[in-house]
Amino acid sequence: MNSYFYKFMINLLKRFSSERKLLETRGAFIIRQLCLLLNAENIFHSMADILLREEDLKFASTMVHTLNTILLTSSELFQLRNQLKDLKTPESRNLFCCLYRSWCHNPVTTVSLCFLTQNYKHAYDLIQKFGDLEVTVDFLTEVDKLVQLIECPIFTYLRLQLLDVKNNPYLIKALYGLLMLLPQSSAFQLLSHRLQCVPNPELLQTADSTKPSAGFKRTTASNIDYTELLQHFEKVQNKHLEARHQRAGRAEQLDRRVVL
User: Fold this and answer.
1) Which label site among 2, 72, 102, 178 has the fewest CB atoms less than 10 Å from its CB?
2) Alpha-carbon distance values, 46 to 8, 13, 209 (Å)
3) What does the pLDDT look like over 85-124, one tens digit per residue?
4) Is 39 left (phi over 0), alpha (psi -120 to 50) or beta?
């Protein structure tokens, strides 16, 4: 990535920050077109790197949510999703760590990134941390959307891995964790029905059950410090909590002035 490209990405994010309506109406289209014309990996890598230093935490969270939706749903990002799915190369692992640090601005998108990259144990560890976060209506709405996304074609491989109960215990635990977060809504029923389809591991035992599963490719990606990533997630979320309380305090002061 040359300096001109990086400056362009900085100015684009500044434009999105100052014109939120543009981000809402045309943001996804603009980013998808850029991914077609330029290198999608460079675009996501540079935006994640810039958002890591973003001072407007609310904008950073919104932007990360937009980028994550594009990453998971756009046909233009098919190759990038495949690159992230297995984390086989140093480049893909480096991209995952870069995206992860910025994705921490939004807890639910961080979990979805872990699902995409098959980091199921880390996804479960993150969901365990959700009990310490401020659970808002927006937060639950995003969990609801993630459950809907799990039923989409993009996560077909994840659903099929539910057949391999023995080798994917943390995937099942993570999905049950999402289920426990949700109120009893349509998303709760959807995920509950999906988990009811998980087979009994004893019924799947065959004569070849002692052999390692061919579908189980890896436990964790090497050269990634997941403990440090989890600490970074907690640090970013603490900043968001402080910022929300400050905004709430300013709004309360403004209401008092209006009353007076």
Assistant:
1) 2
2) 10, 11, 45
3) 988 899 999 999 999 999 999 999 999 999 999 999 999 9
4) beta
CA atoms within 13 A of residue 189's CA, in its CB half-sphere: 2
> Which pTM does this prediction carry?
0.85
Structure tokens at 73: 């749903």
Say how many residues make up the chain: 260
Going 49 to 240 to 119 to 192, the CA torsion angle's sign is negative
User: Cβ distance 232 to 105 under 8 Å?
Assistant: no
Same domain as 174, residue 69:
no
131 & 57 share domain: no
Full residue range of the structural domain in which residue 66 is found: 1-105
* 258 CB neighbour count, 10 Å cutoff: 7
pLDDT band at 62 (very low <50, low <70, confident <90, very high): very high
pLDDT at 81 over 70: yes
**Residue at which a domain ends, from 65, 82, 105:** 105
